[in-house]
C-alpha cells in the first residue's frame, strides 16, 4: 500500500538514504531539512527515478515554532502523514565546562523538543486512522552516559526512553514506534560535531548511512521497538548495559578522547 512518509534531516546521511528507500518502495515523501537546494535536487531525483510525489518543506528545527509550522504546512497541502521519521540531529564534542551553550541548546531543541513536538502533532491523526509508523533516530549513545559529548548522549537517551514508552502506550492502536540506535555511521554528522579524531572512530569503523537506513526501514516496517544495526553494536550495547555504571562511563570517556 502506498503511504506518505515525512522525513526530517532528509538532505544528507541517514535521512537522505531513508528518503531513497521510501521512494524506491513506492511511497510519497515529504522532505524536511534546512537546505532547500539539496532537497529540491533530491526531489527531482526521486520523482524521476521512482514516479512518486515529493513535497519539499525547508525548515529549521532548531527554531521552537518550526514543528507547528510544519504540521500546518502539511495540513494545508491536504496530506496525511502515515510514517514520521524523526531523523534530524545535532551534536558537539568537548567538556561541558568549555562547550558552546547555544549549540547545546540547539541540540536539545532538535534532538529532543522538536522530535517530541512533531510526534505530538502527527500521532493523533495516525491513531484516529488506526494505522501509522514512527521512526525516531536515537543512537547506541542512548544506552550510557557520554563524557565529552554529555548533552548529545543525554538527548539520545531521552529519544530511546520516550520511544519505548509511547510504543507500549500505543499497543492495539495500529500505530508503532521504532527507535533506531546506530553506532558510528559515515555521515556528515562527525564533521559537524568535530568528532574526526576521536578514538571511537578508530576503534569502531563507521558503517555506511545506507546500511543503517536499511536496517531502520526493515525494523520500522516490522513494527520493532528498538533496532540496533550491526552485530558489534549489539554486543557493545549489551556489554555496557551489564557493566557497572561508573565503569561504562569511564569506557565511553576513553573512546571519546582524541588521539
Q: Which features would summarize this protein structure in a list?
A:
alpha/beta, Rossmann fold, two-stranded parallel sheet, 10 helices, 9 strands
Describe this structure in words.
With 259 residues, the protein is an alpha/beta fold. The protein has a single domain, classed as Rossmann fold (3-Layer(aba) Sandwich), CATH 3.40.50. The chain is built from 10 helices and 9 strands. It has a 7-stranded parallel β-sheet with strand order 3-2-1-4-5-6-9, with helices on both faces. Strands 7-8 form a two-stranded parallel ribbon. Helix 1 runs parallel beside helix 2 (36-50). The longest helix is centred in the middle third of the chain and has 29 residues, at 101-129. It is globular, with a radius of gyration of 18 Å. The model has no long low-confidence stretch (mean pLDDT 93).
